[in-house]
Amino acid sequence: MRGLSAALLVVLVGAFLVEPTIFTPLLAPLTPEGAPVIYDRADILSLTLAHLALVAGAMIPATFVAVTLGIFVQSPAGASFLPLSRSLTGFGQTFPPVAVLALTVPILGFGTWPTLLALFLYGLLPVFENTVAGLTGLSPTVVEAAKAMGMTPRQRLWRVELPLAFPLILQGIRISTLVSLSTATIGSVVAAKGLGEIIVAGLTSQNLSFVAQGGLLVAALAVLLAKVFDLVDQRIRPNSASG
Amino acid sequence: MIGLHDLSRHYGDLRAVDDVSLMIEAGSITSIVGTSGSGKSTLLRLVNRLIEPTSGHVTIDGKDVHGVPAPELRRRIGYVIQDHGLFPHWTVARNIATVPELLGWPKARIRDRVSELLTLLSLDPATIGPRFPHQLSGGQMQRVGVARALAAKPELLLMDEPFGALDPLLRGKAQDDLLAIQQTLGTTIILVTHDMAEAIRLSDKIAVMRAGKVEQYARPSEILSRPASDFVQDLVGEGERAFRYLSLIPLSQLVEPGEASGTPLSRNATAAEALNAMIWQNMEVLPLEDGGRVTRAALLRAGHP
Q1: What is the ipTM of this complex?
Q2: pTM, two decimal places
Q3: Which candidate from A145, A150, A152 shows the least CB-CB separation from B85?
Q4: How far apart are CA B232 and CA B38, in angstroms?
Q5: CB < 8 Å to B50, chain A
Q6: Where are the alpha helices (H) located in B136-263, listed in sequence order?
Q7: CA distance B8 to A102
Q8: Do residues A229 and A174 touch, judged by C-beta distance below 8 A?
Q9: pLDDT tens, A13-39?
């Protein structure tokens, strides 16, 4: 049943991206007299791809930095950096992305870069915290066994600690990615290409249909992306499968 | 020969292990017995350098182990812990293959070794090998833990309360298996336990620890007959001392020629088991399976040194 609704959502999103005009009858009631029903100032498919690229462009480096930092503060050499790292990633999370845009546009200019930076900073905390939680929550006997078997610290990390912490790290990446998928819409106020453009256009021209198109599309993508994360999560846990 | 020389491990003012020296015969089973906090587990961890000593050193065959990088040393020393510490994300076969993999054995050799060990521990390689640890029973997990420790044919096997998580029935079976495996492989074993009966049953020598020091290091019969201190005597248990002593004596030493009626005893039984059978069956004398007999009087005489 859940698989079926996901499949239905894929079909709906796909149809809208390829041939948005078939949704005209549905959206027409939201459209003011004489205004276009479907956003026509840019191709919706290419906006969607740009939006997803923006999220990926921020989340891949954010994941890399946050996981590396999480591993580092768990090592004996990095333990004293844990409070500092917590403050930094916490600051990144609480500092409003809109404010990041406002502050960085004078330096980085309009467009993609300020948005990438805002999403990057916003995405660090959940991944970092989950990496730390995943690595500290490991069973002490398992960690001791890895050491007693003669694994070097690096072998312990790659063969035992990271694989066992990975489900939790993945949850962190999932949270960050889904949040940045919706947050990325604000990039349009500084002219980053993305689905926010449709929403902003709808707001400025008081066309509710545009707002609905942009908003629902982002929401649908978030639901589908969450589904993808769930599938990956099930895949990496062969030992929790029943049997 | 494993040598512990003047080993100490201090944590601030606490002397977890305090100037311990022991020489352990190659191919023997040695138990370290003590109450919680006596330093017995710390002593064991000093051997494979999971804990570094404050002072003193460990030698294997006369060579100081501090000359060897710790991971390399640990690959030569098997290690079994109470909660088995199996890697939950790996199959049983991969768990057992841990150390051979670290040593870079060829794949085919690892595969052969894994099924050899599973068979040795009476686990079916085809069905148990591909399972994950959480799919095993407690007894199976314990055996896989032993197989993993033995995988790369270590010269020394360290066991920290290896049977502590098993119920009494499984524990007896696991102890028998360990004795059989030790006889087959000839591995030197150092075993930590708080259970004096287990130590008496398994060991060639017993080291009794208290507050970081070894109170007595001797053969089980001597620990029973001549405890070095009140503490050792308490640990042995005054109430069961004679029976424990009898449990060390093989029945074959007490056989006399002659006939008797009643259920025959096995020649491999201990004097304690024979006495138990006599009391329960209310017999003065019992026959042995392959001829001869044992009298109650002979058993009672053997019950004190």
Answers
A1: 0.85
A2: 0.83
A3: A145
A4: 13
A5: 144, 147-148
A6: 138-150, 168-185, 196-202, 220-225, 230-236, 241-247
A7: 62
A8: yes
A9: 888 888 888 888 888 888 888 888 888
